[in-house]
Amino acid sequence: MSRLKIATFNINGIRARLPALLAWLARESPDIACLQELKAAQSEFPIDEIRAAGYGAIWHGQKSWNGVAILAKGAEPLEVRRALPGFEADSHSRYLEAAVHGVLVACLYLPNGNPQPGPKFDYKLVWFEHFIKHAASLFETGHPVVLAGDYNVVPTDEDIYNPRSWLKDALLQPESRDAYQRLLAQGWTDALRAQYPDERIYTFWDYFRQHWQKNSGLRIDHLLLSKALSPTLMDAGVDRWVRGEPHASDHAPTWIMLEQGVAEKATRKKAPAKQATPKKVTSKKATPSKP
């Protein structure tokens, strides 16, 4: 059976970190890569370099801020939507959804929400509610779906080196954590936590106070699997070496390995009838961290 490697990576500026991105793609060779924080206008996305690396791509850019992309090795992702249903008026480029390699992939960059309380935190919660509603509709289809991205939520105190230092941060607020748990309650599997149920795994280390050097990290990059995909999870991890490179993003790529043949079998059992191709909606290994 074939294997499918899906990764999510907050690149924190694709133009500044393009060499790092290309080096990671060449070394780790994910089949699907979801990128966040492109910080580049639509016309500035380096599609020629991405294609030269062997990847097709769709992207939703925004000058200076936000921005998401889905890359597919040896294929062109089929775009499904680039805005949350009911929230198409959102001016931020934070969501992209595509069918690729037999899986429906959602790439998201959930709002940070700081400072809180305030309008930015209110926006985070509103965005989260729209996403929860849409995720429920995706889950109910029974199709193989992955929700991948920077959620800007630390799910529990076991997902951060020291919660006391972040008590006022939007990433740890009860409302943020409650929204994440309500999302999981729909039936989604938190892949990294499922693979490492009792270990501290970090995906983000900020640039201050030598947090990378001291391994003072947070787990805020998540890949959630639908019911059809959960049994196919073979492995998961964080490519920590990327964070240790010069001029690195403050995130490290987070990935899962799926047994693709099992996913296809589960999908056929769920929907024996011929499945329609999703319509494009136009709007506008890593070693676990030590405690």
UniProtKB/TrEMBL annotation:
<keyword id="KW-0464">Manganese</keyword>
<dbReference type="InterPro" id="IPR036691">
    <property type="entry name" value="Endo/exonu/phosph_ase_sf"/>
</dbReference>
<dbReference type="InterPro" id="IPR037493">
    <property type="entry name" value="ExoIII-like"/>
</dbReference>
<dbReference type="GO" id="GO:0046872">
    <property type="term" value="F:metal ion binding"/>
</dbReference>
<comment type="similarity">
    <text>Belongs to the DNA repair enzymes AP/ExoA family.</text>
</comment>
<dbReference type="InterPro" id="IPR020848">
    <property type="entry name" value="AP_endonuclease_F1_CS"/>
</dbReference>
<feature type="binding site">
    <location>
        <position position="10"/>
    </location>
    <ligand>
        <name>Mg(2+)</name>
    </ligand>
</feature>
<protein>
    <submittedName>
        <fullName>Exodeoxyribonuclease III</fullName>
        <ecNumber>3.1.11.2</ecNumber>
    </submittedName>
</protein>
<feature type="active site">
    <location>
        <position position="109"/>
    </location>
</feature>
<feature type="region of interest" description="Disordered">
    <location>
        <begin position="263"/>
        <end position="291"/>
    </location>
</feature>
<feature type="site" description="Interaction with DNA substrate">
    <location>
        <position position="251"/>
    </location>
</feature>
<feature type="active site" description="Proton acceptor">
    <location>
        <position position="251"/>
    </location>
</feature>
<feature type="binding site">
    <location>
        <position position="152"/>
    </location>
    <ligand>
        <name>Mg(2+)</name>
    </ligand>
</feature>
<feature type="site" description="Transition state stabilizer">
    <location>
        <position position="152"/>
    </location>
</feature>
<dbReference type="GO" id="GO:0008311">
    <property type="term" value="F:double-stranded DNA 3'-5' DNA exonuclease activity"/>
</dbReference>
<keyword id="KW-0460">Magnesium</keyword>
<keyword id="KW-0378">Hydrolase</keyword>
<dbReference type="GO" id="GO:0004519">
    <property type="term" value="F:endonuclease activity"/>
</dbReference>
<feature type="active site" description="Proton donor/acceptor">
    <location>
        <position position="150"/>
    </location>
</feature>
<dbReference type="InterPro" id="IPR005135">
    <property type="entry name" value="Endo/exonuclease/phosphatase"/>
</dbReference>
<keyword id="KW-0479">Metal-binding</keyword>
<feature type="binding site">
    <location>
        <position position="250"/>
    </location>
    <ligand>
        <name>Mg(2+)</name>
    </ligand>
</feature>
<feature type="binding site">
    <location>
        <position position="37"/>
    </location>
    <ligand>
        <name>Mg(2+)</name>
    </ligand>
</feature>
<dbReference type="GO" id="GO:0006281">
    <property type="term" value="P:DNA repair"/>
</dbReference>
<dbReference type="GO" id="GO:0003677">
    <property type="term" value="F:DNA binding"/>
</dbReference>
<dbReference type="Pfam" id="PF03372">
    <property type="entry name" value="Exo_endo_phos"/>
</dbReference>
<feature type="binding site">
    <location>
        <position position="251"/>
    </location>
    <ligand>
        <name>Mg(2+)</name>
    </ligand>
</feature>
<dbReference type="InterPro" id="IPR004808">
    <property type="entry name" value="AP_endonuc_1"/>
</dbReference>
<feature type="domain" description="Endonuclease/exonuclease/phosphatase">
    <location>
        <begin position="7"/>
        <end position="251"/>
    </location>
</feature>
<feature type="site" description="Important for catalytic activity">
    <location>
        <position position="221"/>
    </location>
</feature>
<feature type="binding site">
    <location>
        <position position="150"/>
    </location>
    <ligand>
        <name>Mg(2+)</name>
    </ligand>
</feature>
